[in-house]
Design a protein that fits this description.
Blueprint lengths: L11 H9 L9 E4 L2 E4 L5 H18 L4 E4 L14 E4 L14 E8 L3 H14 L4 E6 L4 E8 L5 E8 L3 E4 L2 E7 H5 L2
Parallel strand pairs: 5-6
Antiparallel strand pairs: 1-2, 3-4, 4-5, 6-7, 7-8, 9-10
Length: 185
Amino acid sequence: MTARRTPHRFTVAEYDRMIDQGILKEDARVELIRGEIVAKMSIGDAHIACVDRLTQLMLGLVGSAAVVSIQNPILLADSEPEPDLVLKNRRQDFYGKPGPADILLVIEVADASLDDDREVKRPLYAENGIVEFWIVNLIDRCLEVHRQPRPDGTYADVRTLRAGETVEIGAIPSVRVAVAEVVGQ
């Protein structure tokens, strides 16, 4: 019988301490996922353009109803992912990392990261109670909308929308988003 090695799992506090002490640089292309420090996917031109487009779009649409946070960490039970865009509750102190109760919407832009966003991030977000999660699928030029998280890592309401359709942000129903503006023309 042989012994198996298991990877060390870091807590969010340990991960943050490594950043605070300079062991991990703040601009390192890593994130904490389920206790493991993992390299983030490379970002190509289409991804950059989509994040920039989303940023401008959301800033114009949500106004003072939410804070638009771009590629900043969020705080989950055993993870500190850095989604491409987060809409979070507005507060006087313009706080740092939001937890699930402060998050209105998480958006991941996916091309090379599509499988990871579906197989790793989606269940992670659902298990942590992220009420609404969108995947901007640049490969199939569609928007995958996930709502009603369940503890088993799935979402009860899943829809795929295409150019010509619109979607409202669940927490801000007065805001309607044209899918074509999200996925690009």
